[in-house]
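User: I need a structural model of Tricarboxylate transporter from Paracoccus gahaiensis for a docking pre-check later this week. Nothing fancy, just the predicted structure tokens so I can convert them on my end. Input:
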Amino acid sequence: MKLFTTPLRAALLCAATALTLPHTVLAQDFSGETIEWTIPFGVGGGTDVWARFFAPQLSQTLPGQPNVVVLNVPGGGSITGANQFANRATSDGLSILGTSASTQYPAILGDPRVRYDYADWTAILASPTGGVVYADPKYGVTGPEGLDTLKAEEIRFASQGATALEMPVLLALKMMGLNIRPVFGMESRGAGRLAFERGEAGIDFQTSSAYLNSVAPLVDSGKAVPLFAMGVVDAEGNVSRDPSFPDMPTFVEFYTEAMGSAPEGEAFEAWKALMIAGYSLQKMVVLPKDAPAEVIASYTEAARQIVEAPDFRERAGEEIGVYDQLVGEEADAALQVALTVDPAIREFLTTWLSEDYGVRF
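Assistant: Understood. Predicted structure tokens for Tricarboxylate transporter:
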């Protein structure tokens, strides 16, 4: 299943072709070097799992086989680590950043804490992802027919922050009328999952990589009940089932069965925009844009070797989900598309976040 429609992918390929270097570029040799990969989240969340899946492969495919070290810098729903990278990163290829929707959303919405600019970075690899919302079995709810039971409860949700990657989850739960009490300040989605496991939260959400690695065992042991997958939203706003969770209903399916009609209106349009901006290209490897051409070429070729390996899809399906990866110019062009949000939707989101959670813009 493609996360980008054919017309959009064709447009991205055209943009990528326009950016292609007109001459052969020599590869950068990283022999004996250590590459610091900043992950602006704590250990155990989806982005951390994703990075630790790719790090040893990057070490093997980059020229000279350098040591790739994951540096976790949690705080501010990824803003702290992204700000630090923007301030300290070198352009010699020894500093890379892994971003997530929690990094994209604040930049799109104009969060005053943001001190980074995506225009200063070049995307080398972009990984789409999905995610699953699941609940504590104590509620006795296993599907949309139990929505009224959930509505009768005040349910805690451990979150990194209102503008973090949980934003479309919070909006989805609000659209269904649930009484969610978010507890902000988690350093990663992994920390949110641990709060759920301790009984401090009654509902939780994890992206595909963390769900497959850390939540599926909870489901198997009867300690968590999946409610719905967020689903895949294409460029036209069509929602389909997540290829990593083909037997799980999407949010739209769950909503439609529970509420008796399909979601619509401003909130739903905003939800779809968030999914496109934050999940179609959720996790990215970026370099400073002023990195030399040979550095960018080396990373691009290394990423291409990884995702084109014969066994990549099988290994990825077990660790991070079954999604088509974007590499090089195609990834960078897609990033520019994802960061473009309709001003009316941005206004709806900032108003909602200000009124419900006191976020200041």
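Before docking, keep this in mind: Residues 1-24 have pLDDT under 50 and may be disordered.
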